[in-house]
Design brief:
Length: 327
């Protein structure tokens, strides 16, 4: 028979053993009850948005603390005056997640940047606005029109208007923030611009809406939530949480427009009335119509914004969105 020697080992009282066992059991139970997103190291997220009410869902979610509730650690928030400027940041790899208009995202993907569109933020939000005294689209024939850039959705709207109404215009590249003053002072005849700037030109400068995207394309896609492909592949749960927050904020905007407008107004430095007026021209909506995305790309090619078609099935992934929306 073998005999074990316990020389030098201090005996532990049974009561202390019980205490240790209970403590370990409690710690294990707590670990099981804490969601995985909180047990694991929280990934820092760099997020980018456009400085307008196209980003309303992001503004609302930030104000309500919903990103934090989902365990999303937004460490950096970058704002850009146009989607084209935001797209440049995506190209450099500066951001993980962004809300941006579709055209600039298509250009970014076409340059070989591995990004994936995973949810829509809204439809519409673009208009051609005439300077004071210019009140119809036909009067714009031969005029000078400001536009953010050839790859912007505003350029698509302008080209559709040129084609629809048979007008000729000279295009001047300009940031939306500069367009309002240029319109009011008569430096340009019109501007193809996004909301909220279109509303500001009307309410503050006696300018006129000549045509809206709704008049030219009833379901024109607006902005989208986009993520790096690497993030989607390595952490689809994080992307699902981003989509859930987006859907929650979008529902809030639709059900509580006044409160949402207050949040947006505070972020943009405009009045609540201006935010309400502007936001009513956007249809905040998360489902993605892939056919509309395909048509958008076709228009970009047609109007010279894009050299050729892209792989839509690689660019757009609705798998998680469908699950979140219960489709």
């Amino acid at each position: 028979m073998l005999k074990a020697s316990f020389t030098g080992v201090t005996a532990v009282k049974p009561s202390r053993i019980v205490v240790v066992v209970v403590a370990v059991a409690i710690a294990s139970l707590v670990a099981l009850l804490v969601p995985p997103m909180l047990r694991a190291e929280v990934k820092p997220i760099t997020m980018a948005v456009e400085f307008n009410d196209h980003s309303a869902a992001a503004w609302v979610a930030l104000d309500k603390g919903w990103f934090a509730e989902e365990g999303l650690n937004i460490t950096t928030l970058e704002t850009f005056s146009t989607g084209l400027e935001l797209a440049a940041s995506l190209t450099r790899g500066d951001v993980d997640v962004a809300w941006a208009c579709l055209g600039p995202l298509v250009l970014t993907y076409a340059r070989g940047v591995p990004i994936v569109v995973v949810a829509q933020a809204h439809l519409h939000g673009y208009a051609i606005v005439g300077r004071p005294g210019l009140t119809s689209i036909q009067e714009l024939d031969g005029g000078v029109v400001a536009c953010p850039g050839k790859g912007s959705p505003c350029y698509i709207v302008l080209m559709m208007a040129v084609e629809e109404y048979g007008i000729n215009v000279t295009i001047m590249k300009m940031r939306p923030s500069a367009m309002v003053n240029a319109l009011i002072t008569g430096q340009i005849d019109a501007a193809a611009m996004p909301e909220h700037y279109a509303t500001l030109a009307v309410t503050r400068g006696n300018c006129s809406i000549l045509v809206r995207s709704q008049d030219l394309w009833p379901n024109m896609p607006g902005s989208f939530l986009v993520v790096k492909r690497e993030l989607l592949e390595k952490d689809p749960d994080l992307v699902a949480r981003l989509i859930r927050v987006t859907a929650r904020a979008t529902e809030f905007i639709r059900e509580h427009p006044e409160e949402a407008a207050q949040i947006v107004a505070d972020r943009l430095g405009i009045t609540v009335e201006e935010a309400l007026e502007s936001m009513k021209w956007l249809d905040y909506y998360n489902a993605i119509n892939v056919s509309d995305v395909e048509h958008y790309v076709e228009l970009m090619v047609k109007y010279g914004s894009l050299e050729g078609p892209i792989n839509i099935s690689d660019f757009v992934d609705t798998t998680i969105l469908t699950s979140v929306l219960g489709g």
